[in-house]
């Protein structure tokens, strides 16, 4: 009888460890994903700032006549 209880307790602990490991991996994956999103946003803003600093036409029309009524 004691052996069955020991096996059940061991199985329960094993499941808890697995659950904790999976939760930790999920959190790490979320952190990595958030870091990649932040990095992409930073690159986008840097590109936008560089584009504005070059004096390029930002009207979106593609004609760039230089007139700013």
Automatic annotation (TrEMBL):
GO terms for biological process: embryo development ending in seed dormancy. InterPro entries: LEA_1. Residues 14-48 have a biased composition (Basic and acidic residues). It comes from the Eukaryota. Residues 1-69 are annotated as: Disordered. Pfam families: LEA_1. Belongs to the LEA type 1 family. This is Late embryogenesis abundant protein. It comes from Salvia splendens.
